[in-house]
Amino acid sequence: METIENRITRLQFIIDEWLHPNNYELKEAIDKTVNEGFFSFEDIKHQLLVFKKTLNKRDFLRWAEPLKRKPSSRKEKRVLCLHAGNIPLVGLQDLLAVLISGDHYSGKVSRKDPYLLPTLLKKLEKEGFVEQRDWSTDLNELPNSAADAVLFSGSTDSVDNVFDKLVSMKLVKHQTPALVRTAHFSIAYIEDSNPETMDQLTQAVFRYGGKGCRSVAMVVAPFSLHSKKCSFTDYIEKFLMAVPQNEKAPPSLYQRYAYNKAVGIEQAWLDNFLIEEIETEPKEPFILHWVKGDKKTLTELIGRYKKGLQTVYVQDPSVEIEGVDTELLMDAQQPPVYWQPDGVDIVSWLNNLE
Amino acid sequence: MESIDHINTDFIFDDQIDLQIRAKKVFRYQVQHNPVYKIFSDHFSITEDDDAFNLRDIPLLPIRAFKESKLISADKDADIIFKSSGTGVMDRSHHYVADSMLYKRAILSEFHRYFDLSNTVILAYTPGYNENKFSSLIWMLNLLIKKSMSKLSQFLPLGEPIEDDLLAEIEKSGKDLILFGAAFGLLDLIDFKPVSFGANASIIETGGMKTHRREMKKSELREVLAEGFGVSANYIHSEYGMCELLSQFYAIGSELFSTPHWTHVSVRDPKDSTRICEPGEEGKIGIIDLANIYSCPFILTDDRGVMNENGQFEVLGRWSSSELRGCNFLIDVD
Known about the structure:
A: Aldehyde Dehydrogenase, Chain A, domain 2, 2 domains, seven-stranded mixed β-sheet, five-stranded parallel β-sheet, B: six-stranded mixed β-sheet, six-stranded mixed β-sheet, 8 helices
């Protein structure tokens, strides 16, 4: 039986090869992805640079720590991953978690990101990590042998429908354990408006057009939006010049702007993004909720919205928020491979499967 | 633009006047008298002077405006205030009703379309009027109870089965029976004691599908209610109303709601509320309720709905926007 370290070494080798500048398959996939409008080149490039930095043996070994407690009797599990497609390669973490755990990967690649992940999957096939018949962009093409576990993300309202569909397709059984992630936003807590902070905040909010649960959709600051509107929009404009927003906002965003104007909600209109001073839960894309407040305000908001909340970011490790594991704002869009969607470590979850 | 300082609201309930004309008049009044709606509608390309005016083009104000602003004509004071359920101030809608007569007319006109109130006993398994003066539903039920002219009509005590004596008296009176209640309340009543109401009874559920026990599909609820109250499923009706609306919609013996003649319901694309969804396509329910002339008659609700080819609609629950953010899977449909 292969040791964890050996598996990780082999995996690391494939990933390094995949991320190598001379990987023409990946280059071609990037071109197709950009040309067909799925993601911007800048966002893909950012994601790949993050992977180059974060997908390393040391972090893989750290992530694999729970496997040392793996019962010897535990058999390999067939794990079905339904990959999201709102951010380039957002499904990579689930794939890696399954492979590091030594389980059998089966994957539904998103039709909204159909080219990038397959370039890695093909390399993994060659090295025997995955099988060709076990992944597709079409659920109907997956072998209909029921998985032992399923990983996916969705809104709380959609979870039952997704699961029912999988059951009807015989891809899972009613009792199949599912790791479902429903968090849909993160909060940034800032205490000043110096250039470093505002740059980090801008990146945390506007990267990937604000999509994804790690993106900041609510900021708690000791100053009002009104007082920083002009200077903040300068940072945003500079960022958007370098990283144009790939997806345009729907008309509902302008309709929301009209609504805010009518009821007197302070706001900043950025053509395809809206910042508004409001304490309600961020649910819609392309909107940043700005809340003037302190740590107490932050704690109240965390308590109120914890169900949909992914991460609370702070500027400095010395900033402590009682009862909350925070992350650094600068890392919002460059998480380590072992980051925990919805606060659940995927490798541990897989390892604990009966 | 013609100025409207005083308006006689009788035209709202006059079905001899085309709804389009009535809506245009109310739209004009709103733009002149409701500063919130005026600012909102200014951002849309619609003018009441335009010959091509179409009520389908009237901008619909998101319903949360009833939580985040005071919606009442600038020259009016509130006759009654209705509040939605909720705990915090910001969680509750406030409907400032400038003319309670409009509410009465809306309630009675639509009720009479389906039922003969003078020959009906109304039972309401809901909290009583005195405990819930801010509830528009309780206000409506209180009105129906009073107008039924039957001493047997009443708010039923909560947490108890319906007394056999009361049912016997109703039967003896020869009147029809209508039992109103939220879905979960009606299920409680059945749990206390299943009864057989007989041929002249109707049940009207007023929402509350997410029961304290479990969520139930509407079709299942209808079956359980029919069996539990001993009536045919044709007599299980639904009422769709809300604190923010003065008019109600009834689904008679089915899950399909019809509209009163002074209202217009459409299903709107959540990504663009100016686009009306095709029949069969789900979206947010948009309502024009002319009885709301003094608050806001043009409302985009947060309810999920679907329209059929005949202009009837189904209410499918709440529209969730959180699926639009986050790393969602949402089985791809190409």
